[in-house]
Structure formats: structure tokens, C-alpha cells
């Protein structure tokens, strides 16, 4: 396992992070024996970070980790999140503190290494989105996160960088955040670069440049595009979290990618992971797993190293042609 520096925190994080989310769901949908075997194998392979959230299985992911971590010899770092109720933004500090205390109860620990806002950030408050002003104002999200950090309940603080690029940049450029989870995969790498004129999709406006300028740790999420990149088998948990796309569109683009690249760089899952690992501005890739075999496949892919330049050039032609659409 290779390790990268997690921004200004100075932490060394495994470039592959164990994702405890709903889509992969090994901590939620599998039996206890499989959960334990998979977690032990991840730790034995050198993975030293687990990412979870209260919303993953309505607390089931955190609850599972509460007992699983007692059954393994390793002491991985843990990140979790807080999803604000946008109907109660007059008490952001209280919401953050209550959510974190509930997470710590489920995790059965006194603190976490990283706490991140889970809400998207957009120009207007709508749905579960909050605005940059609500993040940065007095009594806002940043204040609330800093407060729990001062209390010793979280070592570092950050955001999930979903929403509108311009609004996200305002939060990132504030310099008040240690980390960002960034949507980044082989179908949509716009958080890490300017895209060709013909390419279409949710444009994250090269957010990684802003993160790099602030020396923030960056965690790639949706590495497998909710499983669409890994396989053509659908499990019903393929929730699309970006604008200007849907499952059918993602599937069509995935087929175009692998028609161009073939299997020269490993399985589909391995190729998708190696693409993310090719970006040195990312601290790590959070991967979703449904079973132990998926972990073994990912570990073998990571061992192959970043996707080589010729493959990246083939992808560049695909982006320029908008996947041939």
C-alpha cells in the first residue's frame, strides 16, 4: 500500500480508503462475519482510514464500526460527517454537536480524526443544500466545526465538496477547512482540470486547484460512479449525486471508456481506481465495497500503480468527443 500526505494535517493516509457507505454497503448489507473479514483484510493490506457517516444505513455503518474496531488489532483513522437539517439553520452549532455526539455513541469512541459537512454547498438554500454564507458566517458551519475541534471531539474538519463549483470555491478559499471530499472519477474528472468544450456534465470547475492552494487534504469519492464503472450488474443502489446525468448516461459513457481502453489495465474496477490514483493532487481514493472479493480486486489494482500516460491520452480523446455522443 502506498501512502500520501493528507494536506496540511501532515497525516499519512493510505491512498485507498475503506468506504463505509450505502452504495457499496459491506458494513451495512453483509453478515457480521463478512464485515469482520473484509475489515481485517483491509487493515492487513495497509489501509489506515475508514470513512463513514450517520446517513449510511441510518447509522448502521457507524454502529457496525463500533463493534468491529474492537475485533481488529489495527487502529485506523475514522472520518464521519454531519448532515444539517436546513429547516433549522438558526442552530447550526447545536446541530453539529448533537450529530457528532450521536456518531461517537454509535462508534463507541471519544473522538474522530475528521468531521466533514455532508450537505452540498450552493448559491441558495434548497433541499439539503446550504450556502457559502451559512458555512462562513458567525455561528455558521465553520464556527461549529471549529468548536468541536477545540473540544477535542474531532482532530480535523472539512466538507463534502458537492454542489455548485463557485459556491464550493468560496468555502474552500476561506482557508478554514482542513479537507474536502471531492467527486472525481474517470467519467467526470472536472474537479481536477478544465474539461474540453464539447464535454458535458456537472462541472466542478477544477476544485482541486483551490484545495491545493489551501493545502487541504482531498478524498476522491464516487471512484466507481456508484458501481457503474465497476460492472454492468445493477444492484439498485446506483444513486446519481451530480447534475446533468443519470444511470443510463453513466452506463453509456462507461461502455465508451472500456471500449477504448479494453482490459489492458486490469478489470474495470481496477482501471477506474488507477485513473483516480494517477492524480497526485488527491490524497486518497474512498472506495465502496459490497464484498471481500471487491476489496481484493481493488488492492490488486492499486498495486499496479496509476494509469499510464498512453491510457490517459486515450481518455482525453474521449472527453474531447464527449464520449462519442
Structural key phrases:
single chain; alpha/beta; 8-stranded parallel beta barrel
Helix content: 25-40%
Beta-strand portion reads 5-15%
Number of helical regions: 12
Task: Give the terminus-to-terminus CA distance.
Answer: 38 Å
Mean pLDDT: 95
Find the structural class using helix and strand composition: alpha/beta
Q: What composes the largest sheet?
A: 8 strands, parallel, barrel
The residue ranges in which pLDDT falls below 50 over 5 or more consecutive positions are none
Order of strands across the main sheet? 3-4-5-6-7-8-9-10
Rg value: 19 Å
Give me the oligomer status.
single chain
* Principal-axes shape call: globular
Can you count the beta strands? 10
Element pattern in H and E: EEEHHEHEHEHHEHEHEHHEHH
In brief:
This protein has helices at residues 26-29, 32-44, 60-68, 92-107, 132-136, 141-150, 165-173, 207-213, 247-261, 268-277, 292-304, 309-320; strands at 3-5, 12-14, 16-19, 49-51, 77-82, 112-117, 154-161, 179-183, 217-221, 284-288. An eight-stranded parallel β-barrel has the order 3-4-5-6-7-8-9-10, surrounded by six helices. A two-stranded antiparallel sheet has the order 1-2. The chain contains twelve helices and ten strands.
Amino acid at each position: 500500500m502506498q501512502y500520501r500526505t493528507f494536506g496540511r494535517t501532515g497525516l499519512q493516509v493510505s491512498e485507498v480508503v475503506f468506504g463505509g457507505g450505502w452504495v457499496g454497503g459491506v458494513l451495512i448489507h453483509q453478515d457480521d462475519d463478512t464485515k469482520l473479514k473484509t475489515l481485517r483484510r483491509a487493515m492487513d493490506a495497509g489501509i489506515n482510514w475508514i470513512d463513514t457517516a450517520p446517513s449510511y444505513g441510518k447509522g448502521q455503518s457507524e454502529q457496525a464500526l463500533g463493534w468491529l474496531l474492537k475485533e481488529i488489532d489495527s487502529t485506523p483513522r475514522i472520518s464521519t460527517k454531519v448532515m444539517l437539517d436546513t429547516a433549522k439553520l438558526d442552530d447550526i452549532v447545536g446541530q453539529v454537536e448533537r450529530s457528532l455526539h450521536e456518531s461517537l455513541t454509535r462508534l463507541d469512541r471519544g473522538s474522530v480524526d475528521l468531521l466533514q459537512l455532508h450537505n452540498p454547498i450552493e448559491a441558495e438554500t434548497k433541499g439539503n443544500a446550504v450556502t457559502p454564507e451559512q458555512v462562513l458566517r458567525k455561528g455558521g458551519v465553520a464556527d461549529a466545526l471549529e468548536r468541536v475541534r477545540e473540544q477535542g471531539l474531532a482532530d480535523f474538519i472539512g466538507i463534502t465538496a458537492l454542489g455548485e463549483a463557485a459556491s464550493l470555491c468560496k468555502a474552500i478559499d476561506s482557508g478554514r477547512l482542513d479537507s474536502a471530499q471531492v467527486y472525481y472519477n474517470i467519467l467526470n474528472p472536472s474537479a481536477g482540470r478544465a474539461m474540453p468544450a464539447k464535454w458535458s456534465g456537472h462541472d466542478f470547475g477544477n476544485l482541486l486547484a483551490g484545495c491545493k492552494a489551501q493545502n487541504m487534504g482531498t478524498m476522491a469519492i464516487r471512484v466507481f460512479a456508484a458501481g457503474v464503472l465497476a460492472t454492468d450488474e445493477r444492484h439498485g443502489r446506483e444513486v446519481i449525486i451530480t447534475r446533468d446525468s443519470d444511470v443510463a448516461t453513466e452506463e453509456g459513457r462507461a461502455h465508451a471508456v472500456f471500449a477504448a481502453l479494453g482490459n489492458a489495465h486490469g478489470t474495470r474496477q481496477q482501471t477506474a481506481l488507477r485513473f483516480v490514483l494517477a492524480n497526485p493532487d488527491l490524497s486518497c481514493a474512498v472506495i465502496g465495497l459490497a464484498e471481500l472479493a471487491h476489496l481484493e480486486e481493488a488492492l490488486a489494482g492499486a498495486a499496479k500503480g496509476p494509469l499510464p500516460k498512453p491510457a490517459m491520452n486515450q481518455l482525453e480523446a474521449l472527453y474531447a468527443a464527449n464520449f462519442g455522443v
